[in-house]
Each structure stands twice: as C-alpha cells, then as structure tokens.
Amino acid sequence: MLKLLSSSSARQIHNHLASPCLRVTTESSTNPLLKALGSITGLTRRTSRNPTYYQRALFCSGSSNDGSGEVVEVELKSGESGADSTDASNAIVPTNPRPEDYLTVLALPLPHRPLFPGFYMPIYVKDPKLLAALQESRKRQAPYAGAFLLKDEPGTDPSVVTGSESEKNIYDLKGKDLFNRLHEVGTLAQISSIQGDQVILIGHRRLRITEMVSEDPLTVKVDHLKEKPYNKDDDVIKATSFEVISTLRDVLKISSLWRDHVQTYTQHIGDFNFPRLADFGAAISGANKLQCQEVLEELDVYKRLKLTLELVKKEVEISKIQESIAKAIEEKISGEQRRYLLNEQLKAIKKELGLETDDKTALSAKFRERIEPKKEKIPANVLQVIEEELTKLQLLEASSSEFNVTRNYLDWLTALPWGNYSDENFDVLRAQKILDEDHYGLTDVKERILEFIAVGKLRGVSQGKIICLSGPPGVGKTSIGRSIARALNRKFFRFSVGGLSDVAEIKGHRRTYIGAMPGKMVQCLKNVGTANPLVLIDEIDKLGRGHAGDPASALLELLDPEQNANFLDHYLDVPIDLSKVLFVCTANVVDMIPNPLLDRMEVIAIAGYITDEKMHIARDYLEKSTLEACGIKPEQVELTDAALLALIENYCREAGVRNLQKHIEKIYRKIALRLVRQGELSEPDVSGESKKAEAESIQSSSGSNEASRNEENDETSVEAETVMTDQPSEQIQCPVDQPANSKEATETEKIEESEVTKAVEKVLVDTSNLADFVGKPVFHAERIYEQTPAGVVMGLAWTAMGGSTLYIETTQVEQGEGKGALQLTGQLGDVMKESAQIAHTVARAILVEKDPDNPFFANTKLHLHVPAGATPKDGPSAGCTMITSLLSLAMKKPVRKDLAMTGEVTLTGKILPIGGVKEKTIAARRSEVKTIIFPSANRRDFDELATNVKEGLDVHFVDDYSQVFNLAFGYDQNEEK
C-alpha cells in the first residue's frame, strides 16, 4: 500500500529517508491514459523549459492507516530524450549490470501480498543468513532479489486471517520446504534499503522460477517474463482501461485512502500504459492475495485489465458499505453519548439532592433486605456465599460484565424461598371431597393420594414422593396433579419435558455463559415462593437426547429421594433441599421411560374410562363447562342420554374423554349458530309488528281495532309458521286453537307467541339428528359377526389409546398332498409372527391328539389374517387366540359367539400372563362379550378392578390350552344356535 506525504511532513522526515534515491523519468509527450488518471486526482503535471529536471517524491509504504510505514525518497527525472527515455518504460533507471541480466536470484517469501512492478513493499527478514546475503548483494552493486508469494498451507482457507503461530511457521521454512511453498511467478525486486531486519523492495518486472540452485539461503533460477504483444489502438482494450479509470473515479469520491494512492502513483510513474494501469488497480485494491497473484501471473494485457476491473468494482461496493457503516456507527455513538451524559448529570443531581443513593449501595441494600426475614432459615454455607458475593459486588465497577453476572447471581440466591413452607392440610375427608369434585372414578389414584395424606397426618410432616401417572391421552393425568395440589394446599407448578434434549434446562447453565439461567426446579421455587410445592413433570416418557447430554440421566438426581435433599444446580452451585417437594410425573407409555428413572417412581396406571364413567363425566363436567364456554343457557338445549351414549359408542371410543369433549363442543357450537340465526330473523319481524299495532290502535275505533287485531293475528300466525318450518318437527310445539273472543284472543296470542319463541329456541339433540351435528359415525360395532364362523375367534388387544377387540381369521387356500403351509397378513410384527408359528405347531399337536385321522394341517395351505390391515400389530398375547382359530377351521367347528380370549402360549401349551387387564376388560364389555378367558397369573389383576368395570362378565382363568379348548369348543351347538 502506498501513501503520499505532504510537503511539510516530507521536510520533517527528510533526514530519515532511505537511500539510494531512485531516478524516475516522465515523458514530455502527452499520454491519454495519464491524462485520464490525472483528471481523477485533479493533479497537474509540472512542466519546465529546462528539458531535464528532477523531482523528489516521498512515499510511505505500509498496510496500516496511521502512517507508521517506511518512508522512501524517490528522485524523479523529467525531460530525458533518446535511448534513456525509451528504456524508461519501467520507470526505473537501468543499472550496470541491467536487471534482465539477473538469471539467478535470492528467493524472498512474501506472506501477505505479491509485489507488483513499480511499487514499494517493506518486508521483514528473520533468517540471519538470508539477511546477510541481501546485504552482501547490495554491497556488490547487485541489489536485486526475487519476491515470490507464499502459498497457503494445505487445508487452510485463504480468506481466514492467520495468527502469530502461523507467522512463526512461515519464518521457519527453509530449503526445499520453502521452495515448494512459493508461487512460480513473482517479481524481480530491487533492494532499496535495509534497516535492521526490515528490507524495502521496489518491484521491476515479472519472473518465473525454473529450478532451485541452493537451499540456505534459497537461491533459484528464473526466467524474465514479458507481456504478450497487444494492439494499443484496440477499442476493447481502450474501453476496458477507461472503465477501470471511471471506476477509480467512483472509488475516489468515497475513499480518501485511495485518493492518496492515486496521487502518489501519478507523481512517480513514467510511461503510463495499459499493463501499468492493470497492475496499479490490482496493487492498491483490497483483494486477497490469491486474486492479486492471479493478476500478477496474467501476461495477456486484456485479460489482466478485466481481472483488475473486477477487483476495482468490488472496491466500489466495499467503499459504499464502509460509508454506510461509518454513518450508522457515528449516529449510534452520538446518540449513546448524549444519553450517557444526560444520565450521568441526572445521577449527579439526584445524589446532590439526596434523592438517590449509589447503584451498588442500593443493590446491596435490596439484597440484604430480602434475606433479613429468612436469615435464620438459610443454611450457613449458602449465607456465606451470599455475603462473599455482596462483598465482591461492592468492589466491582458497575460497567464491567462481571458486575452484571454477580448481580444476577445474587438476585437468584436471595429470591429463593429458603425454609419457607406452605401449611399443608391433612384433612382426609376434605381431600376426598376435592378429588371427587374434580374427577369421576380413578379410585386407585384417589386412594393413593389419601394414603399419602394419612401418613403425613400421623407423622406430622409429609415427605416428598415421586408418583408417576401412566395412561392413554385424555384420561386426566395432568388435571389430577392440579387437584392433588388443591387437596394438599400446596402450590402447583407444571413443566413439560416432552422433546427436552438439553440438560441445562434441568440442571442450569454455568454462570460464565452469556445468558446463563438456573434450571427448571430453581425457577419453580422462585415462582411459587415455597419450598414444598407440587411439581408436575409432564410427558416424562418423551424425553429427548441431544448433543447437550441426556436429560433422563439428569433427572435421576432430581427424582431420587435419597439425593434430592442436596440437589446441586450448575448455576447456583449451592445445594438445595427438594426433599419436601411432591413430584407427580405423567406418561403415556411406561416402557419408554429409562429403567433407572422408572425405578425411582411409584407408577399408578390409569387404564381409561368405561362407557358408564364417560356418561357421568360428560354430564357432570364436560357439558357444564361447554355450555358456559359457548354462552348457551341450559334451558335452550337438551342433549338426550341416548344421543350421548351414541356419541360415546360411535364417535369417541378412546380411553380418554378429550375427544368426547371436542365432539360436545362441536354440537354446542352448531346450536349456538342456530340460535343466533333465529334471533336475527325474529327481531326485525317483532319490531315491525309492534309499530304497526301502535299506529292502528291510535287511529282506529274499538270495533275497527278488533278487526285489525284479528288481521294482525292472522299475519303473526303465518310468520310463526314460517319460522317453525325452518326447524325440525320434534323441536317445535304446535299452537292450540284460537279462542272466539277477540280480546282474549289477543292476550292468548301474545302468550302463545312467547311460547312459540321459547319452543323455537330450544334445540333437542337426539339419535335421529346427531349425525347433523357431528357427521357420520366413525366407529361401528366391534362385533362384525352375529354368529362366529369356523376359523374366526375374537381376541383382546391393548393399545396406547386403551383396549380393543381383535378378530383373528383363518381360511383354507388350497389342499393337496403335502401342501401344508401358513401365510400371514395384517401388518404383524416379528413377535406376533413368531406367535403364529408357535400356534401352528401347537394346533397340529392338539389335532393329532384329538383327531389322529385328520390330515388337515399336513395337506392344507392356510391363510391367517388379522383385520385392520393398515394398523401395525405386535405382541405375544395373541397366541391363545391363533391356536383356537386354526383348530376351529381344522375341525370345522365355530367357537361360541360371546367368547373372547387372550394369553401367550408356549410350545408345550402353557398359558403365560399378559398385560393391560383393565383395558382388555373394557374392550370386552364394549363388544358385548359375556365370557373372557384370561391366564391364571392375571387373576389378581382382575380382582383389583372396580366392580363397575367387571360387572356382568363371566371370566375363566386357565393355565393350559386344554382348558381353553374345552371352553371354546365344549358346548352344544344346537343350544348355542
């Protein structure tokens, strides 16, 4: 980079100029490019009658903007004629020997930018041998060396700024390593001066390395390169060069730094031609070193001009960005300075008037005021940390970043409810009443909460526990937690961990991070203000696992009763007592919870609601809240029990009641729209009739008044009929016959009119018009066979949404000698496929035992299918049902129509226990099954069910498949029919 010094500053530093001076010639002839470039800067070239004169130009070479680069004095000569002027095309006075005679030169590595001919560059030579060789060359009157750009290390980005370590590595390169890292094309540079380890180079002409001569210092053989011949009068080259100059003019309007470069160059250039212009634009641009090296290596003048034009155009854009940034920063700084000064003046005024104390003093007083009431309850180690932080706060400057970190830390420490517990209510009867008010059924959950309250009452203090409520969506797991908090008189806090993948959400961030915050538990304690809240951790089975750690493992310390008395948050870094907190977790599927975490919880399963429970919930809870939410009065609508039952059976078979609530809301929204439409239609008619009646009563006599009233009655009755026809027939009451007396008729008409209005407003929802509100039924009867055919058996399945019945069907595909095989369909999982293979084997063994002469399985290809083929199914508990289906087809004997079964079967025919007893029992009741076959190991699970769930069911518990065979086929078919 080049900088022009002013004449005054030049005089001051004249004594420090490097020597020898370089003699530069300028032609007296007019050069069009030189004129154009001179017009950019507004400079006028000096002329003299004396044909020969010298100019002195002072240059500062360096990359910094503070003018700290090396100062060089150059002596410019003008008016030379003859051979001297023609040989001065490179603006350098030839020496003896000439520069082109140097075919072997010392190689100087340039780490940052290439050196262009006609420009100065200071470099630092750290190698003492190389520095000594340069000084020796200068003494021998051969002050020339080759300057070559250093290649980047393999795998590094040239646009990324390198650090000091890489600079040291560059200086350490020697010999072949340095030779391999140099670009082939460089510049023959004259050594202008050497001061210490700084060497000033002046570029002369382009070189290309051919081979290495010696390694230390690195000496190479070079070829001197010349530009390819070009036509000076070529219009394209001229246009490109003038576009470069035009672009330079645009840059100079914005950037004063470029203006200095142009002024400097126009003072010392000689024959200003197209190649010089290309080199000039590239040399003073801010392009990276590889782009500059590309310009240096290009010998085609037109291509070099095009490359330079691209770089200069980019400089225009950069200069515009620089100008906008400078303007924005200047505006921001001026505004902030004004605000800062005003704030400081305001603080000083308030302090003088005694209206405000110092910020740090006020903060410390606020924090001490917070901890004063609970100083005795705060643990000693925490109190010590608070005192240390308060002392640190007084020593820190308010403007430092550490001050804000300490202030936030103290804010959290002092805001926590140390030792502050809410008074618990251990009244069991009150808790029972609250739980019954909020939820219908759920006997197991309510009993467990009452046990917890009873233990707390006997001990006088309640210890925090971890309860996990598992069940399908919509059964009320989250709302149960709120009810428990109300029953215990505890504060309630809920946070969901579904999809949580960052451990810092639970354990907090380190204080050193920007924007650090404590974990959810510390935030909970600050929000609720007590140390014994009820914390509901929702969706704990949907914890994520990301790059920031495993949150499930972080929850172990939080939920372990043995460890959470000293829970350590990363942000606070002091132990917190969470042993009094009651944790309630919710999950849809317990299998998704990691075993170490599940081991710390007490799981209470909520299977779902049967039809009777859903009816009560809909009547007592959902309907009331929906009426209020929709703004409908109870007397305006009637939802019959039959319609509600149909809604539950045909639309909302899920284990929960969330979908049922949505459908009830859908019905009431449609009713609200109907009522509003009726009101808008009837209001204009009523007002019109009343005005008409008033006008006629004023103008008419009593006799004519009665006549008009009769006419009015006729019109009203017609309008009433019109409104009534818009409604279903069952929603409207027909008017009675009109009395003969006209006065009585008028009064009766008014009464009837109001009754008709009430009748129109009341909407009846029954099974006949239920589809008008909620559409066609989603579910159909789960019993798709009135009389179960041979090969079809009903099984019982568990799903995440509750229980359901599942038919297993077997049919014969083809029959022939030795064609026995089994084909499976129905989206079966691996476990269920294996169960089918086991069932096939066990069924063959049982058929051989029961009917040895029957070769059915050996000679028949069978197809076993489980309907609802789009639904993936898996699990071992369908083995018992599959065997029964295969045997039913083999013996051509159907099973009884009201039978359903479930159980896993071994190869020896033993029945193993299954899961989801309550869900499967509910599914059996929904399908009007009378007889269920369960494994004997599940007898206790069935006995623990509520009476209303297992009411009316004949349940058989079996240990071996032979018992299942007798129950399924040991009946009189005539009686069954």
UniProtKB/TrEMBL annotation:
<keyword id="KW-0496">Mitochondrion</keyword>
<feature type="region of interest" description="Disordered">
    <location>
        <begin position="682"/>
        <end position="754"/>
    </location>
</feature>
<dbReference type="InterPro" id="IPR046336">
    <property type="entry name" value="Lon_prtase_N_sf"/>
</dbReference>
<dbReference type="InterPro" id="IPR027503">
    <property type="entry name" value="Lonm_euk"/>
</dbReference>
<dbReference type="InterPro" id="IPR004815">
    <property type="entry name" value="Lon_bac/euk-typ"/>
</dbReference>
<dbReference type="Pfam" id="PF22667">
    <property type="entry name" value="Lon_lid"/>
</dbReference>
<protein>
    <recommendedName>
        <fullName>Lon protease homolog, mitochondrial</fullName>
        <ecNumber>3.4.21.53</ecNumber>
    </recommendedName>
</protein>
<keyword id="KW-0067">ATP-binding</keyword>
<feature type="compositionally biased region" description="Basic and acidic residues">
    <location>
        <begin position="744"/>
        <end position="754"/>
    </location>
</feature>
<dbReference type="Pfam" id="PF00004">
    <property type="entry name" value="AAA"/>
</dbReference>
<dbReference type="GO" id="GO:0007005">
    <property type="term" value="P:mitochondrion organization"/>
</dbReference>
<dbReference type="InterPro" id="IPR020568">
    <property type="entry name" value="Ribosomal_Su5_D2-typ_SF"/>
</dbReference>
<dbReference type="GO" id="GO:0004252">
    <property type="term" value="F:serine-type endopeptidase activity"/>
</dbReference>
<dbReference type="GO" id="GO:0016887">
    <property type="term" value="F:ATP hydrolysis activity"/>
</dbReference>
<dbReference type="GO" id="GO:0003697">
    <property type="term" value="F:single-stranded DNA binding"/>
</dbReference>
<dbReference type="InterPro" id="IPR003593">
    <property type="entry name" value="AAA+_ATPase"/>
</dbReference>
<dbReference type="GO" id="GO:0034599">
    <property type="term" value="P:cellular response to oxidative stress"/>
</dbReference>
<dbReference type="InterPro" id="IPR054594">
    <property type="entry name" value="Lon_lid"/>
</dbReference>
<dbReference type="InterPro" id="IPR014721">
    <property type="entry name" value="Ribsml_uS5_D2-typ_fold_subgr"/>
</dbReference>
<dbReference type="GO" id="GO:0070407">
    <property type="term" value="P:oxidation-dependent protein catabolic process"/>
</dbReference>
<feature type="domain" description="Lon N-terminal">
    <location>
        <begin position="105"/>
        <end position="316"/>
    </location>
</feature>
<dbReference type="InterPro" id="IPR003959">
    <property type="entry name" value="ATPase_AAA_core"/>
</dbReference>
<dbReference type="InterPro" id="IPR027417">
    <property type="entry name" value="P-loop_NTPase"/>
</dbReference>
<feature type="binding site">
    <location>
        <begin position="471"/>
        <end position="478"/>
    </location>
    <ligand>
        <name>ATP</name>
    </ligand>
</feature>
<dbReference type="InterPro" id="IPR027065">
    <property type="entry name" value="Lon_Prtase"/>
</dbReference>
<comment type="subunit">
    <text>Homohexamer or homoheptamer. Organized in a ring with a central cavity.</text>
</comment>
<comment type="function">
    <text>ATP-dependent serine protease that mediates the selective degradation of misfolded, unassembled or oxidatively damaged polypeptides as well as certain short-lived regulatory proteins in the mitochondrial matrix. May also have a chaperone function in the assembly of inner membrane protein complexes. Participates in the regulation of mitochondrial gene expression and in the maintenance of the integrity of the mitochondrial genome. Binds to mitochondrial DNA in a site-specific manner.</text>
</comment>
<dbReference type="GO" id="GO:0006515">
    <property type="term" value="P:protein quality control for misfolded or incompletely synthesized proteins"/>
</dbReference>
<dbReference type="GO" id="GO:0005759">
    <property type="term" value="C:mitochondrial matrix"/>
</dbReference>
<keyword id="KW-0378">Hydrolase</keyword>
<dbReference type="InterPro" id="IPR008268">
    <property type="entry name" value="Peptidase_S16_AS"/>
</dbReference>
<dbReference type="GO" id="GO:0004176">
    <property type="term" value="F:ATP-dependent peptidase activity"/>
</dbReference>
<dbReference type="GO" id="GO:0005524">
    <property type="term" value="F:ATP binding"/>
</dbReference>
<dbReference type="Pfam" id="PF02190">
    <property type="entry name" value="LON_substr_bdg"/>
</dbReference>
<dbReference type="InterPro" id="IPR008269">
    <property type="entry name" value="Lon_proteolytic"/>
</dbReference>
<feature type="compositionally biased region" description="Polar residues">
    <location>
        <begin position="697"/>
        <end position="707"/>
    </location>
</feature>
<keyword id="KW-0645">Protease</keyword>
<dbReference type="InterPro" id="IPR003111">
    <property type="entry name" value="Lon_prtase_N"/>
</dbReference>
<keyword id="KW-0547">Nucleotide-binding</keyword>
<dbReference type="GO" id="GO:0051131">
    <property type="term" value="P:chaperone-mediated protein complex assembly"/>
</dbReference>
<keyword id="KW-0720">Serine protease</keyword>
<dbReference type="Pfam" id="PF05362">
    <property type="entry name" value="Lon_C"/>
</dbReference>
